[in-house]
Amino acid sequence: MIKKTVLQNGIRVLTEQMPSCLSASIGVWVTNGSRDEIPEAGGIAHFIEHLLFKGTARRTAHDIAREIDSIGGMLNAFTSREFVCYYAKVLHNHVDTAIDLLADIFIHSTFDAADVEKERSVILQEISMLEDAPDDHVHDLFTQTIWHGHALGNSIVGTEETVNSFSRDYIRQYWYDAYRAGNVIIAAAGRVDHDQLVGLIQKAFADVPTGVIERKDNLLPTIIKRVEIKEKDLEQVHICLGLPALSHSHKQRYEALLLNTVLGGSMSSRLFQEVREKRGLVYSVYSYLSAHSDVGTLAVYAGTGRENAALVIELVLRELQKIAHEPLTAKELFAAKEQLKGNILLSLESSDNRMSKLAKNEIYHGSYQSLDEIEQGLSAVSIESVTALGTELVRDDRLNLVVLGPLVPEVPNVETLKLP
Q1: Which stretches does DSSP call E strand in 182-281?
Q2: Which end of the chain lies in a sparser environment, N or C, as judged by fewer CB atoms within 10 Å?
C-alpha cells in the first residue's frame, strides 16, 4: 500500500492507498525551515508560506480560495523549524484539481509588491498575537532559551525587525534558491492511485529547479543551564521547564515516548495527578517531546497563580527526579504502551495524518516505518531501559527554565535551579 517514486528532477513522490477512504490528502513538503535561515533572515520561510497563497500568473488569491471551496476541499500550509508544508484535502475525484492548485502556487506565485506589503502587516499582527497568548509564547521563549545561539532557537515567524527588512526581491530570491526539487517531497494518502498521481505530478511540477540545498548549520547546539525570567503583567505565571532530549530517529525514541507519556502526556500522568488533581494548583500541566533531525527537547508546561509558581516548579523538578531514578511500575509501563498504540492507531484513521506520517518518515528515517515496526519498538521497551534513559537525560546541568508573567521572587535562578 506504500509506494515511492523519485522523479527525474529529484522530487520524491510517496503514496499510501486507503481504498475505503473518500478523501485524498496531498502535501508538498520542502525540507527547508526556520533553522535554515541566517539570523538576519529570521522568519523568511514563514513569509514565503504566506505569499504563495496571494496569487499566481493564472489565479488571483480569490480564485485560489474560490476554486478549492467549489470542490469542498481545504488548502493550507504551515512552517516548522525543519520544513514547510503546503497541503490540500479533497474528495478523491478532485485529486487533479488539488495537484494543479498546489503546483501553481508552488511554482508560479507572482510575489506582487502590494501583496508583500499586505502580508508583512499580517505577519506583524501574527507576531503581536503570539506575544498576547502567553500559554503559546512561553514555548517559543523556551525554544529560544534552550537553543540559545543556535539556528534551532530562531523564531519561526521572525521578529518585527527581520520581517520589516525583507524586500520583494530578497524574498523572491530566497524562494528560488530554497525550493529545489531535491528538497521536495510530495506525499499523498487516501483513495489515490500511485501511477496516476505520479503522472499528474511529473507534468505539474516539471518546472521545479533541480538541486539540493544542504543544511547550513550541522553543528549540535551547546547546552548549558539557563533561567529566563520575562516579567509581564498577566493574571497567571506561565512556566516551561525542560531539557535537551533525543532526535526523531534516535534508537531510544520509544523509551522517550513512554517516559513522556508517564510523566505528563495525559490526564492519568504523574504530573497531572500530582499537580492538578491532588493539589489543585493548576488548570493546565503537561509534558511534551519536540524532536528534530539531530536533537530534541523534553519540556513541561504549567500555568498557575503567582503565589503557587515556586511550588509548582518544585513539584515539576521532583517528578523529573523521580522519573529519572525511580523505576516505573509494570502497570504504568503497560498502560503507557497501550495508550500510545491507541493514539497512533486513532490518528491514522484520517488521510491527512497518514500523509504527514509518510512525509515525516521520509524526512527523518529515509523510509516508511510500518505500524508493526512501531508496535515492536514499543513492545521491546523495558522498565530498565526507560529508567536508564531518564537517568541519562535528566541532569542538573541541562535544566532550562522560562517563567513568563508577574514577578515571582521565589523562582530559582541558575545557581538554585536543581533537582531535589
Answers
A1: 184-190, 226-231, 237-245
A2: C
Q: pLDDT tens digit string along 104-161?
A: 999 999 999 999 999 999 999 999 999 999 999 999 999 999 999 899 999 999 999 9
Provide the sign of the torsion angle of the four alpha carbons 227, 230, 235, 238, taken in this order: negative
Q: Is 49 a catalytic residue?
A: yes
Q: How far apart are CA 256 and CA 247, in angstroms?
A: 10
The grid coordinates of residue 411 equal: 523562582
Q: Is the dihedral of CA 80, 85, 86, 90 positive or negative?
A: negative
Grid cell listed for 43: 522568519
Q: Which residue in 37, 49, 82, 228 is the catalytic one?
A: 49
- Bridging pattern class, strands 237-245 and 282-291: unpaired
Residue 368 and residue 373: Cα distance in Å, rounded?
A: 10
Strands of 226-231's sheet in order across: 226-231, 400-405, 237-245, 296-304, 282-291
Category of 43 on φ-ψ map: left (φ > 0), alpha (ψ -120 to 50) or beta: left
pLDDT of residue 220: 82
Distance, CA of 328 to chain centre: 28
Residue indicated by cell numbers 531501559 = 385
